[in-house]
Design brief:
15 helices, binds L-homoserine, alpha/beta, 26% strand, binds NADP nicotinamide-adenine-dinucleotide phosphate
């Protein structure tokens, strides 16, 4: 049986998962591919480090040149992270006529076009299913199964670490730092967890999804994003009382003037298909004009789920090695639709205003009227003779208008705290009833 050589870059969570996947599912892979996949070299920084998987010591190298120069390696798998030197290694491997598979969303989001052009030039494959959604097949469905659709909207929970943190904070009232540590121990977090918590990771993934869904080049810099650090326990509690959950949502929507593409903490009504996507699970809702709404859900992070996507990509490019076929054009962009500036994105908001005394409530309402902010009061809680909290849901507003109004509210004497969060989907029944009395 023909053997196909693999050079693996990285032996951390994902790299180890790939080693395990190729060995424990060897029979399935061999049977379906009619060839043997063999890891011939593994690039690491520290060959002396203890590893979660057993590999022959002589497979390890710290020199990428050994992989690039080895003609028996036809496929290079990047499970390394970061852009430097990952980008150079990927470009060098493609230039040597090797196919490349990556789990590295940062390198795809920032340099995807350059890399795809290089792959096309050499007729080699470049696959990145694992870069979005861990074990969930979503890249190939977007590129192939939904190729004839005009995608109207993509809405997703695409970062497992923050979803794990928010779910534990909501269901168990756990502290942020403790749940982050748990996510790191389980191998969900990025090498630098700031990338998860501050929204970078979800923004990389959204840039990839948006480009594929809307057939237009989208750069990471086009995506406006925010992480979950400012989510207060109080907002979690209010959301729950009103029939909502708070999730880190990534959204891309087609508008006449351009594309909306943002990552933001959001209130979702419990009835929303993404509201029950908890823990490390990801969910991606894609609305096509022919297929209608499709929900892709599964484990969004972790060694084995991610390795499932990497291994399937390896098998896809291995087919090209076996048939000697060139990989064909891989870029799916066919138009140039701009991404709208952050301030111009329109949506509803949840607005919580904490006041020190009851008499600060009047100037809050007055300012909302003065700023022409259509806001439904959905809840209020005051202690006798003391301050309290007012909660509103706004009508659709431009993001710039909403944040300017929130800043002005914060300057009213007696206003202690203002929290503004996006609201997706229709208002939950409980909040609607509270607002309208119906
Ligand atoms: P990780 O556990 O930190 O592993 C990174 C590996 O790459 C380590 O083995 C490290 O070597 C090696 N490495 C890093 N820089 C290197 C360099 N300059 N030269 C040689 N080796 C280098 O990271 P991970 O969680 O597996 O993530 C890897 C990639 O997969 C990232 O792009 C990440 O975004 C992506 N991803 C991760 C997940 C997940 O659930 N973790 C899911 C989907 C995608 P040493 O071990 O010797 O330090
Ligand atoms: N750190 C990422 C996450 C890994 O938590 O979703 C999967 O891309």
């Amino acid at each position: 049986m023909q053997k196909i050589g693999i050079g693996l870059l990285g032996l951390g969570t994902v790299g180890s998962g790939v080693v395990t996947a190729l060995s424990c599912n060897r029979q399935e892979i061999r049977g379906k591919l009619k060839a043997e996949l063999e890891i011939r070299r593994i690039l690491v920084r520290d060959p002396g480090k203890a590893r979660p998987v057993e590999v022959a010591r002589d497979l390890l190298t710290t020199d990428f040149g050994q992989i690039a120069a080895d003609p028996s390696i036809q496929i290079v798998v990047d499970a390394m992270g970061g852009t430097d030197p990952a980008r150079q290694y990927i470009l060098a491997a493609l230039a040597k006529g090797k196919h490349v598979v990556t789990a590295n969303k940062e390198v795809v989001a920032k340099y995807g076009r350059e890399i795809l052009a290089e792959a096309e030039k050499h007729g080699t494959g470049f696959c990145f299913e694992a870069s979005v959604g861990g074990g969930i097949p979503v890249i190939r469905p977007l590129k192939e199964s939904l190729a004839a659709d005009k995608v109207e909207e993509v809405l997703g929970i695409i970062n497992g670490t923050t979803n794990y943190i928010l779910s534990k904070m909501a269901s168990e009232g756990k502290e942020f730092n403790l749940t982050l540590q748990e996510a790191q121990e389980k191998g969900y977090a990025e090498p630098d967890p700031t990338n998860d918590v501050e929204g970078f990771d979800a923004a990389y993934k959204l840039a990839i999804l948006t480009a594929l869904a809307f057939g237009t080049p989208v750069k990471f810099e086009d995506i406006s994003f925010e992480g979950i650090r400012r989510i207060a326990r109080e907002d979690m509690a209010w959301a729950s009382e009103l029939g909502y959950v708070i999730k880190l949502v990534a959204a891309a929507k087609e508008r006449e003037s351009g594309l909306e593409a943002w990552v933001s903490p959001c209130l979702l009504p419990l009835e929303h298909p993404l509201a029950q996507v908890n823990d490390v699970f990801n969910g991606i809702l894609i609305k096509g004009n022919l297929a209608g709404e499709l929900l892709f859900t599964g484990r969004g992070a972790g060694g084995l789920p991610t390795a499932s996507a990497v291994a399937a990509d390896i098998m896809a490019v291995a087919q090209k090695v076996l048939t000697g076929q060139a990989a064909g054009p891989v870029c799916t962009c066919y138009r140039a639709k701009p991404v709208l500036p952050k301030e111009e994105v329109t949506g509803r908001y949840y607005l919580r205003v904490k006041v020190k005394k009851g008499d600060a409530a009047l100037p809050v309402n007055n300012l909302l009227i003065q700023e022409r902010i259509g806001a439904l009061p959905v809840a209020k809680k005051f202690q006798q003779g003391k301050g309290g909290t007012l909660v509103y849901f706004t009508q659709p507003l431009q993001a710039g208008t909403a944040s300017r109004a929130a800043a002005k509210l914060g300057m009213i004497p007696g206003v202690q705290e203002v929290s503004l969060l996006r609201l997706e989907g229709l208002p939950a029944a409980a909040a609607w009833a509270a607002a309208t009395g119906k």
